[in-house]
Specification:
four-stranded parallel β-sheet, single chain, alpha/beta, 8 strands
Length: 259
């Protein structure tokens, strides 16, 4: 069975690696062998991950980037990491899956986190999906599109009044969204769900923003959820194996005369 390489951003905070490694361990325990690699901050690097797969006698691996928004890391860093893996072990077949990204299963993962919050969910509760935000406006627009297309299903699943988005950078802050939920949707309680793959410094910023806005923050991160494990498996299953073209044999310039 192909080994999955979960490629995460990485963080100087060890909690990040703990959550990513926990996701890999749960996948492996469920019969889907998985290891981790990081784009930055700590090991294993993509090169080290490729060498580990080869050392284990595996001929291939499928890289599943643990990235939510289609921003710089997904567009630039992931392809560079895959090139490093192929250069480090030329005999290893490396297939690249789409980043876990913006998929309805991501909202199912958010629902799992919301249901674990210390807030009673009901028809007067508002849910805020708290994302990091990005200078890349296309990334923010993609999150908005996902919620516009599938947010109603999340509202129905949770039995809440409304679901809205907020951003730490380059977008609407938690405090403003809480006010909108109260004024427009009549919400008397609010819970924010962190759209972060793993715990660490980014989630800490969300904790502080939620405290300033007087909003409860759901515990955990996306890597903790069953839906995220399902999404990783889906992305891996849909990955396209790279086509290897066999070199053409040189043809002789001499003609063969038959007769």
């Amino acid at each position: 069975m192909t080994t999955l390489t979960l490629l995460a951003h990485g963080s100087p905070d060890p909690r990040h690696a703990r959550d990513v490694s926990g996701l890999a361990a749960r996948l492996t325990a469920a019969g889907v062998p998985a290891q981790v690699a990081y784009l930055d901050h700590h090991s294993p690097t993509p090169t080290e991950a490729a060498q580990a797969v080869a050392a284990a006698g595996q001929p291939d691996t499928t890289v599943v980037p643990l990235l939510v928004a289609p921003a710089y890391h997904a567009r630039v860093d992931v392809p560079a990491a895959v090139r490093q893996m192929r250069a480090a072990v030329p005999t290893l077949s490396v297939t690249t899956a789409e980043p876990v990204g913006l998929h309805p299963l991501l909202l199912r993962a958010a629902a799992e986190l919301a249901q674990a919050a210390q807030v009673e969910l009901g028809p007067r509760t508002g849910v805020i999906l708290a994302a990091a935000g990005s200078r890349d406006l296309r990334a923010t627009a993609a999150i908005e599109t996902l919620v516009r297309q599938h947010g109603a299903a999340l509202v129905e699943t949770l039995g809440v009044a409304a679901v809205r988005t907020a951003y730490l950078d380059g977008g609407r802050p938690l405090g403003r969204i809480r006010t909108l939920l109260r004024c427009i949707d009549g919400c008397t309680a609010t819970v924010a769900v962190p759209l972060v793959i793993a715990d660490g410094l980014l989630r800490d910023r969300m904790v502080r923003a939620a405290e300033r806005a007087d909003v409860a923050l759901a515990p955990g991160s996306l890597a903790d959820t069953a839906a995220m494990a399902d999404l990783v498996r889906l992305r891996a299953a849909l990955a396209v194996t790279p086509t290897i073209v066999a070199p053409r044999r040189p043809t002789s310039s001499r003609r063969t005369v038959v007769g």
